[in-house]
Design brief:
single chain, about 450 residues, alpha/beta, Rossmann fold, eight-stranded mixed sheet, five-stranded parallel sheet, about 35% helix, globular
């Protein structure tokens, strides 16, 4: 995969704080938070120039931003005094980083389409500085396929997306779409750039896709097959990868875990939904970490009405779910691929078999049971790769994630160093791709008692 530009690094250069922040404010209810964001950026030593869209002034007046920034707000492309000196070019050159918060669905779509209909979109197209957007919109708008496609376009072009978060919305609904809080945005923008300039960022600019959490396979409208994954390990990996400089997209099953700052999250429910979500994103990915506890099997057909308690016994016909991990590793030019193996016995044996069978680069394995692995604050891992292994002793999942990401980054860098060598493994994968895809596509009939719970041997959460 082609390594992208470092959109996730320091906006003003490696390890340096962005001095000049151009803050774009578009017409969403969350604009009321933007003056506080200006105040926090100014307190951190930034010079902030606010550029407002026409709709933004319906929520907050320009004089408010002028008061907190100390600069006249710019809101017109056709400002004769400014444009006599090519004002939009002047702004584009002045900025060390362009931050748009809130970014509405309309603005995101315009930027993805390359439109320059007002001053803000024109500056975004004309600047050589990094562009960062913090989306804010209704949960249904955020989930809309068009909005998600536009976000993928922006990410592929090196634009960093912060959030959104989940919670109560102005419309009275609850879900994903809230703009991150000003403190979170300021921290995501400045702390990574202005922390320890010597701190290692081994995944700087690496496009990383991580899966996390369980899946739910419906039996009827009120029952489903699932497993005990909490999602904490996958979310910890997303945070650690982001801290290591990666541009992270996190695809998660249903969990109650806060999205790490600076990570774009996509929510799914079933194994099929996760498979499709991964393959929508995978073309621009350099590193894929499959930490989700994906159901191996699903009911052949979910009942449309609640199944009543009548017969003394009941059986479910199950079919095999798509194998997301194997399908990614089988791509003609796969990303660096890391899988997980949660085992109840013979952990090392099963992990090595999985490493070879699925043709992945690394496998992180752990033992699971009533007293270990799932739904706990701590865990331990043994990581296997072709020709080696290492044990990571018991620690919190945050610490484990940091150590695992460091190990992955080391092996990812080694693979990059070998990029000019003959790609025997890639050719080998390509030869076996059709066979593995065919195997993954063939459902296997099975049966389970009504109360059974499917636990795939994939995750370590």
């Amino acid at each position: 995969m082609t390594t992208p530009s470092n959109s996730g690094g320091a906006p003003g250069g490696s390890g340096s704080l962005p001095k000049n922040v151009l803050l774009g404010v578009t017409g969403g209810v969350a604009a009321y938070k933007s003056p506080d964001l200006v105040r926090r950026l100014v307190a951190r030593g930034c010079d902030v120039q606010v550029v407002m869209s026409r709709g933004a002034s319906q929520f907050v007046t320009p004089i408010t931003f002028q008061a907190v920034s100390g600069r006249r707000v710019r809101d017109e492309l056709w400002d004769e005094a400014a444009e006599a000196a090519m004002g939009h070019i002047e702004l584009a050159r002045w900025a060390d980083v362009v931050l748009v918060a809130p970014a509405t669905a309309h603005f995101i779509g315009s930027l993805a389409a390359g439109l320059a209909g007002d001053l803000l979109t024109t500056v975004c197209l004309a600047t050589a500085a990094p562009v960062v957007v913090a989306p804010a919109m209704n949960r249904q708008m955020w989930a809309n396929a068009a909005v998600q496609a536009n976000c993928r376009v922006l990410t592929e072009r090196g634009i960093r997306i912060l959030g959104p978060g989940a919670g109560e919305q102005a419309c009275g609904e609850h879900g994903m779409g809230r703009m991150l809080e000003p403190a979170e945005i300021a921290a995501a923008l400045l702390d990574a750039a202005g922390g320890d300039a010597s701190a290692p960022r081994p995944l700087a600019g690496v496009r990383t896709l991580i899966t996390a959490g369980p899946t739910r396979e419906p039996i009827d409208p009120v029952r489903y097959i699932t497993n005990r994954s909490s999602g904490r390990m996958g979310f910890a990996l997303a945070a650690a990868a982001r801290a290591a400089g990666a541009d992270v997209v996190l695809i998660s099953g249903p969990v109650s875990v806060k999205t790490p700052d600076g990570v774009r999250r996509i929510d799914v429910e079933t194994a099929e939904e996760m498979y499709r979500a991964v393959h929508r994103e995978i073309s621009s990915v350099d590193l894929f970490i499959a930490c989700a506890a994906v159901s191996d099997y699903r009911p052949h057909a979910a009942a449309t009405e609640k199944i009543k308690r009548s017969e003394p016994e009941m059986r479910l016909d199950l079919v095999r779910s798509p194998d997301t991990l194997a399908s990614v590793a089988a791509l003609p030019n796969p990303p660096f691929t890391v899988g997980f193996a949660a085992e109840t016995q013979n952990v090392a044996q099963h992990a090595r078999e999985k490493l070879e069978r699925k043709r992945v680069d690394m496998i992180a394995a752990n033992k699971v049971g009533p007293d270990c692995g799932f739904d706990r604050e701590t865990n331990e891992l043994t990581v296997f790769w072709h020709g080696g292994e290492v044990h990571i002793g018991e620690a919190s999942k945050d610490v484990l994630a940091e150590r695992l990401i460091a190990l992955i980054a080391e092996h990812y860098a080694k693979r990059g160093a070998r990029a000019a060598e003959p790609k025997g493994r890639a050719a080998e994968q390509k030869d076996g791709a059709a066979e593995r895809r065919a195997g993954a596509a063939q459902p296997t009939a099975g049966a389970a008692e009504f109360a059974s719970r499917d636990t795939q041997q994939e995750p370590s959460e």
